[in-house]
Amino acid sequence: MRFLHTADWHIGKKLHGYDLLEEQVDAFQQILTIAKKEQVDAIVVAGDLYDRSVPSVEAIEVFNKMIIEMNLQEKFPVLAISGNHDSSTRLETGGPWFIQSNFHLNTRLDQAFQPVEMENTQFFLLPYFEPISARLYFDNEEIRTIEQAMKEVVTEMKKQFKPDMKHVLVSHFFVAGSEKSDSETKLMVGGLDTVPLSLLESFDYVALGHLHGKNALQAENARYSGSPLKFSLSEMNQKKGVWIVDTKANETTFEFKEITPLRNVIQIEGSFKELTTQEFYESIDRENYLHIQLTDRAVIPNMMNQLRKIYPRVIGVERLFGREVQQKHNETKKEIKTLAPNELVAQFFSDVTGEELTRQQQVWIKENLAEIYQAERGK
C-alpha cells in the first residue's frame, strides 16, 4: 500500500510571538494536495498534533477543520499518535467514535499492541510515553529509561507480526544518532531519552516524529518527516515536506515531497542605513520572518521600532560587531557566577526547554545536590 508520512504539526505554535495558524492551514492544504495527487491509501501523523497540552480555542478549531476535510470529506484513513507536546488525555476524547470513520488515534501505550491492518501492512501506532508507563504495563521495576522500555515494547509488538504482511511502526521519540534543531525543546541528558536504531530493525518502515528536520536521521528503514513549517532560525535551510511510502511485496520505498512555506524564515545582514534604504528592502520579500544581523557599531535609538515599520515580521536582531554583544556576554558570566547550584540548574533547564521547572523537579534537584554535597564532604 501507499501512505503519506507527516508529523509535528504543532497547531497553535507561535514564532517569536507571531501567530502561525495561517501558515499551518496553508501547509496542510499542500499536504492534502500531495496526498490526492499521489493517490495514497492513508495518512500517517507521527505526533505533536498540537503545540501545547492545553491548546487555544483557535488552534482546536483549525485542527478540527483539518481532520474533517482530510478524513470525512476526502475519505483518507488517518493513523495518528499523540506526541510529547500533546495531552494524551484530551486527545483521547472521542477516540472510539473516530475509529468508525477510519481515524485511528492512539494516545496510550497499551493501544500500540493492537495493530491497524490495511491491505498488506500492519501499523503499530506507538504514542509518546514515559518509562513509568512501560514499567507499569509490563510490571517490571527495572525499566527506568526509554531504551529499556522500547526493548520490551518491540518484543511485544513482534508477537503480533503476521509473516505475510509488512510492518510499520509509527512513533515519536529521539533515535540515537539523530540531530536536533533549536525548536525541539525536550531536554535529554545522558541519552536517557534515546532509542538505539538497532531496536527498530524488525520493521519495514519507521515513521518518526519529534525532530523537525527530514535529514535528522538517515536510515534504510526509518525517517523523520520533519515539521511542515520552519519553527526556528536553525531550521532556516531545511526543506519541509512529507514522505510518500510504498510497502511493496519485495521492498519498501519512500520518496520526499517538498512543500513551499507561505512565509519563509530568512536572515539578512547589513548596516542600519542599508537595511532602511528603499532599494535594499524592496529587493527582498518583507512578508517573510526575518532575522537581522546588524553590522553597525554605534547605538541606534529606537532601532527595533524603526526596523519593524519596514519589516513587519522581525524575529530577532543580532549585533555582529557592536559593544552590546560583549557587554551582554560579560554580564551573563557575572550573573552565572552568583547563582546557587540549584538556581544554575533551573536556569539551564529554562534556556534549553523554554519552560520552568515544576515544583517536584525542584525538590528532586535539591535532594540530589544535597547527596552530592554530602558525598564530596565525606571524601
Strand composition percent: 15-25%
Mean pLDDT score, rounded? Answer: 88
Q: Strand order, biggest sheet?
A: 6-5-4-1-14-15
| CATH architectural designation of the largest domain | 4-Layer Sandwich
CATH topology of the largest domain: Purple Acid Phosphatase, chain A, domain 2
**What is the terminal-to-terminal distance?**
63 Å
Unreliable stretches, pLDDT < 50, 5 or more residues?
Answer: 184-192
- For the record, what is the CATH homologous superfamily label of the largest domain? Metallo-dependent phosphatases
**Helix fraction bin:** 25-40%
Q: What is the H-and-E element order?
A: EEEHEHEHHEEEHHEEEEEEEEHHEHEHHH
Counting DSSP E segments of at least 2 residues, the number of strands comes to 18
User: For the report, how would you describe the main beta sheet?
Assistant: 6 strands, mixed
| Number of separate domains | 3
How many individual helices? 12
Using the alpha-carbon principal axes, give the shape: globular
> Which CATH top level class of the largest domain fits?
Alpha Beta
C-alpha Rg (nearest Å)? 23 Å
Backbone structural class: alpha/beta
